[in-house]
Amino acid sequence: MLRDLIRKYVESEVVPQGEAWEIEGMIPRSILKQMGELGLLGLRYPEKYGGSNLDMLASVVLAEEMGRSTFGGFTATVLVHTDMASPHLINAGNKYQVEKYLPSIIAGDLITAIAVTEPDAGSDVAGMKTRAIQDGDHWVLNGSKMFITNGVHADLYFVAAKTDRAARGSRGITIFIVEKGTPGFTVGRALDKMGWRSSDTAELAFDNCRVPEENILGEVNRGFYAIMQNFQNERLVLGAQALGEAQKALELTLDYVKQREAFGARLWAKQAIRQRLAQRLAEVEAGRQLCYHAAWLDSQGVDCVKEVSMVKAYCGELVNRVLYDCQQFHGGFGYMRESTIERMVRDARVQSIGGGATEVMLEEVAKRV
Ligand SMILES: Cc1cc2nc3c(=O)[nH]c(=O)nc-3n(C[C@H](O)[C@H](O)[C@H](O)COP(=O)(O)OP(=O)(O)OC[C@H]3O[C@@H](n4cnc5c(N)ncnc54)[C@H](O)[C@@H]3O)c2cc1C
Fold it and tell me: How far is the C-alpha of 88 from the C-alpha of 48, rounded, in Å?
């Protein structure tokens, strides 16, 4: 039922408007609000705050179906809010913080962003330089964050900063809730990206930004572990998004090669083409089963860092392989800006980089075998 609801929503409200959002470089608030009203922004959150109390598989279904929209920027905007940023609040927030923010997050009135990456520290989270120093009942933040999705349009930012510079990187990080408009916090312009163009991505600057103590999220100096815990969720939905995109691209390509003719026959009649597509369909199916399996392990409370890292590594690469072939079999048309496949090729590229690059994911697998 959930899949059906999301698919219909995507087809009627997202696909017809997606091109306009690509040009504007953002998803309108009205859409996020609409998704909130449909209950799509709080699938895993407690019912008392407006959520649906479902498990990890619900997030996977949401990500797959959003991925099928063919607009990666739209998908990223939504999934960062639902599955990458706001989970920090429910995982580590105290009752006061959760009650203050979560109902508006689920309703789509308050959009969230997660700010970990910096100009000089991405994969190496512990290497971050943004620092926070306690001053009475406030903490003073200085530094900058880079490539932050929803950076321009978010209302609420979960910002990681070093709070113990003497401690080893992973031991001295804390997460702060920073509201837009806090003095000393500025948002740079939206960055100009190769793909995900309807998602806004920005650099954030903190210049003696005073954050009240009550906005500390979770325990002081334990933020690194909270980030690592939440990465599991983030990486699983990014894998599922990649699978939705790959599946949809293959369907579009099947339609194309079944009607396009060359050398007196449909492209589909060429064994080389149909075998390659059949191979990719098998790989996508394999990725999907791994992804569902990891989601199931997660919902049983089983440690599945290895499986989730496999999902992220495998699906991030797979969607690029699939899109390469889909573009190839679309011929010159697949290279034109007006073709859906061309946009999907550009959108896919970041899937093996963002949220844990393939090599970093493979290191996580290697550590566990
Ligand atoms: C469109 C977009 C949106 C993003 N949104 C957010 C967001 O909302 N919040 C946020 O905090 N961050 C965000 N990011 C940042 C993203 O997660 C990082 O770009 C990613 O983690 C890689 O970090 P980096 O860019 O610093 O690359 P680096 O860490 O400098 O790595 C560069 C490359 O080196 C390789 N590499 C790195 N480490 C290893 C290793 N140990 N072994 C072998 N090879 C390695 C990988 O191929 C990697 O791609 C976003 C990025 C993009 C592009």
Answer: 18
Contact 127, 140 (CB under 8 A): no
Residue 211, both tokens:
């954050």
Distance 49 CA to ligand 1 centre (A): 33
Q: Alpha-carbon distance 334 to 331, whole Å? A: 6
Q: Do the bridges between strand 156-162 and strand 216-217 make them parallel or antiparallel, or are there none, so unpaired?
A: unpaired
Is residue 163 classed as helix, strand or coil in its secondary structure?
A: coil
- Residue 213 is among the residues annotated as catalytic for this protein: no
Report the nearest atom of ligand 1 relative to the CA of 355.
Answer: 17
Q: What is the pLDDT of residues 158-203, one digit of tens each?
A: 999 999 988 887 889 999 999 999 999 999 989 999 999 999 999 9
**pTM, to two decimals:** 0.97
pLDDT beneath 50: ranges in the chain: none
pLDDT at 165: 86
Give the 3-state secondary structure of 233-260: HHHHHHHHHHHHHHHHHHHHHHHHHHHC
pLDDT of res. 83: 98
pLDDT at 203: 98
Handedness of CA 351, 353, 355, 360 (dihedral sign): positive
Any atom of ligand 1 within 6 Å of the Cβ of 239: no
Q: H-helix or E-strand containing 56?
A: helix 56-67
Question: Is the Cβ atom of 201 under 6 angstroms away from ligand 1?
Answer: yes
Amino acid sitting at position 322: V
pLDDT at 170: 85
